[in-house]
Design brief:
mainly beta, about 0% helix
């Protein structure tokens, strides 16, 4: 079964940092654009960041600009989300998702319903 596995979540104080990782099970990520989504309690799932299959393009939600950084290491078959200066409002379950893209299009073109593979999520809690 093809799936994604997230790791790296946890409890952190405001202003702290976490690095999330997303690794596939059963396939390689090099032909996939990858996105991170999050869902806070009682809220809809929202896209946080994405990276194209080649790594050439990245995109961030406005509140993550300058604080979060997405990267990929295709040799390690892993995508990372470095999160700095965390705020209470960053709390939620973070999911990674993949959509096949052999060309390397700008990842912002993909809507959430176009992502075909999803992980189970990792909890991020920002609290003092």
């Amino acid at each position: 079964q093809l799936q994604l596995v997230e790791s790296g979540g946890g409890l952190v104080q405001p202003g702290g940092s976490l690095t999330l990782a997303c690794a596939p099970s059963g396939f390689t990520l090099d032909a996939y654009a990858i996105a991170w989504f999050r869902q806070a309690p009682g809220e809809d799932r929202e896209g946080v960041s994405c990276i194209s299959s080649t790594g050439e393009y990245t995109n961030y939600i406005g509140s993550a600009e300058g604080r979060f950084s997405i990267s990929r290491d295709n040799a390690k078959n892993t995508v990372y989300l470095q999160m700095n200066s965390l705020r209470h409002e960053d709390t939620g379950v973070y999911y990674c998702a993949a959509v096949k893209d052999f060309v390397g299009y700008y990842c912002g073109k993909y809507g959430p319903y176009e992502y075909t593979h999803w992980g189970q999520g990792t909890q991020v809690t920002v609290s003092s």
